[in-house]
Amino acid sequence: MRTSCVPLFSAVISIALMGNALGQAAIKARSFHPNELGSIPVLMYHAIGAHSSRGARYDKHGLNISPETLRKQLDMMYAANWYPVNMRDILTPTINVPLGKTPVVLTFDDARGTQFSYLPNGTMDPDCAVAILEEFHAKHPDWPLKASFYVLPRSKYNPTPFYQPGLETKKLNYLVQKGYEVANHSTSHRMMRTLNAEQLRWEMAECVRYVKSRAAGATMDTMALPGGSTPRTTELMNTLLNGTEGGTSYHNLCILRAWGDTTLPPAHKRFDIKEIKRIGSEPGYIEGWIKHLSSGEEKPFISDGDPNMITIPKSREKYLDTARTVGMKIVVWEDKTPKPAKPLEEEPKKHKKKKTKDS
Ligand SMILES: [Zn+2]
């Protein structure tokens, strides 16, 4: 990146550390208005192009959207400088996203068939979510193959993850090998507000056993609440983070909610691993959020391109979690427009007269 684009941005940067390398990086970053305390969109998808046995095929809750809608949303995200990451990649302040980009997490719940399916001839269904992501990556190699799949062994949605019995092991391994995240959506999809500690531990551990016995490389260390239903107490909620059941231990780095808002970045004081909010795919909703964040009505996370540096506008500095960012380089830029200089007061008439007389 040439530094000649820098004059586009007129704010003054105050830098805690003024080493040459950092000075260069900061100068390069300025033209992108980095804001590493801005909002991060985590998107929630379910079925893509599924057939419906009743009612409208594409419902108002966004539980089934058309393949064309997903393609259009990817185009919009790309144009808005968004950049896909896995959920587990944005849980520490060292987020690794290129300069000027906003991280976005595409999450897919329930391991529904339309997310990943093969045709009878053995090729991937071009309209399933995985094929759509790969088609987009082939067209835009700078859009990596990243997404997080919240799977479960079986539920009312599938007899087996991604619906085609016999292909589940192949599919789970495929996702892991391609660099997608495979994570925990419980075992039975029961609403967690009705479950006790023992049941919650089984829901977490049995899903880990099922997936890891088929795809050992699956990380299985983030979880999405089935139906967005939360356990009744904080103690029960904490049961979802760490535990052991039937000889299987599980550890979740965060808990994802459903149908919410944007989420906060980990360097933000109010970041909470149990409160990762997600934007649902109701018709027009994701499109609305892309426009909302692009317009700056709500400030999105914009990367400075250096995972070990946190760059923020001065007005956001009060939200920086200094404990969680110990040892990182912190760059703060002044984002307030300076007040216009006061116009010069007219010289008093008396003084003017005197001047005339003297001259
Ligand atoms: Zn679900």
Describe the protein's architecture and organization:
The chain is of the alpha/beta class. Helix content is 25%, strand content 15%. Residues 1-19 and 350-359 have low confidence and may be disordered. It has 2 domains: 1-33 and 304-359, no CATH class; 38-298, Alpha-Beta Barrel (TIM Barrel), CATH 3.20.20.370. The radius of gyration is 25 Å and the shape is globular. 38% of the residues are buried. Residues 109-110, 185, 189, 226 line the site of zinc ion.
CATH topology of the largest domain: TIM Barrel
Name the helicity range: 10-25%
User: What structural class is derived from the secondary structure elements?
Assistant: alpha/beta
The count of strands amounts to 15
- Tally the helices: what do you get? 8
Share in β-strands: 15-25%
Termini separation comes to 59 Å
| Assigned CATH superfamily of the largest domain | Glycoside hydrolase/deacetylase
CATH architecture classification name of the largest domain: Alpha-Beta Barrel
Unreliable segments of 5+ consecutive residues = 1-19, 350-359
Using the coordinates above, name the CATH class of the largest domain: Alpha Beta
Sketch the topology as an H/E string, one letter per element: EHEEEHEEHEHEHEHEEEEHEEH
What Rg is obtained from the alpha carbons, in whole angstroms? 25 Å
How many distinct domains? 2
* Residue-averaged pLDDT: 88
